[in-house]
Amino acid sequence: MSNDRSWRARSRGWLAAIALLAALAGALLVGSPAGLQLPNPDHSAVSQLRSAIAGIPANGTVLVAFDPDIGTYPEIRFAVRAVIDDLISRRARLAIVSYTPEGRALALAEIARLVDGGTPAGRVLDLGFRTGAEAALVTSVASIVPDSASGALADALRSRGGGLRAFDLALIVAGVDLGPRSWVEQVGTRVPGLPLVAVAPTSLRPELEPYRASGQLDGLLGTLRDDAAYAASVEPGGAHRPPASLAILVGMLAALAVLLQVGSRNIQARVRRAFDRRERW
Amino acid sequence: MNGLLSSDPAGVAGTWVAALLTIVVFGRLLGERRVFGLAQYLLAGLATGYLLVLAVREVLVPRLVEPLLHNAGARPALWPAVPLVLALAGAAYLPRRVAGVPVAILVGGIAAFALGGAVVGTVLPQLAGAIVAPGRPATVVNGLIALLISALVLVSFLHGVPRRRVTVGAAAAGRWLVIGGLGAWLGYLLVSRLALLVDRVGFLLFDWLGIGR
Description:
Oligomer: heterodimer
Strand order of the largest sheet of chain A: 3-2-1-4-5-6
Strand content of chain B: under 5%
Largest sheet of chain B: none
Distance between the termini of chain B: 9 Å
Number of helices of chain B: 6
Mean pLDDT of chain A: 91
Low-confidence stretches of chain B: none
Low-confidence stretches of chain A: none
Largest sheet of chain A: 6 strands, parallel
Distance between the termini of chain A: 33 Å
Structural class of chain B: mainly alpha
Order of helices and strands of chain B: HHHHHH
Radius of gyration of chain A: 24 Å
Order of helices and strands of chain A: HHEHEHEHHEHEHEHH
Number of helices of chain A: 10
Shape of chain B: extended
């Protein structure tokens, strides 16, 4: 009897999972209706980031600290690519470095994508992987260009000191391990003239918002809606699109349904306990 | 489309492997454990192998071995690194006192950097930013609300201290504020994880099956 009941409960769970996946697939295929907009109508975060990027001089150098997690990178991937394409279209020169192993794997993939996409080789420099977490950030202040790096951009960075002061902007592509907070604490205090901007997964937003509010971060894309607003502002209908808003809505409705079910179960249990108590009296 | 895998044969093979592994992981939702377990072993093995290759190719060889082989006298600071790396590599076979030295240096160094940075880069600037300067009424009200919430939440963490009625009420209000904050953060997490799930489903549909491209 109890086996039969547990099998039925399990099969209900399987059906719910399949139904959710099918609903998401359907939402992706149907596309989002015109009235359902994912981009944030409040453009303050986008404007702040765009004004920080606009402050880069012609042929300026940007350090891209590429340290996202493999687990959360898909959430910010389209925004990161939109920012990088925006920088390249403004003729900025990018030097890409990673301080986490996961970030290094993703950085290599993105550098290959940039090169395959026709980005001129002199515009992108691979600074490799640096171990030591916070200590590595501190040593980067004095020296970040490895001896093996060659080319016009590497020479230009060496002629400007070879450390973080050689850059006009630092773009932090964040993950959980070594994110904008570490940059603000270790680099922001040592190189106060270097503007720091970040693209981070939504889960980091509560931690990072105070740094944006205090001006320690010069720009932050920290929610899916801000990411979508930025991508739409630099290339409306372009190649780097956010997740379909209808699919996100379907997922949120499913989550609400689960919450309601759990809540109603709790209420039922409480009511039952209250009745039992009254009967005992 | 994730755009990480190209359309050459290697990219196509990568897409197929990624798609099959995604299906295997989704299979866990339907109670399939054995194949899902294999996928976990695969991930752990690949991650370990990748870390080893990264450590050798991008750290030990270019930053330690090559500089010492080419011009050992020019970089005396690198010599102490050799016994430290060897002690770490052989930590499982060495006495704890020997193996503990590099670990102690590692942990101590990171803690010192993190603590110093937290004080200078977070605590002091955020304290300065939180001070309410006389200005627009809306800013002052905002600041006072933030002060009130912070105070109530801090009071809720008071344990083992004799409390009066007012303190008990404030602590209860602080606890509810903490719960509210956690709920809001979970809401952020939900949107974040939903985006990841939608990305995986989109990968199967668009990159693998080629539907709706």
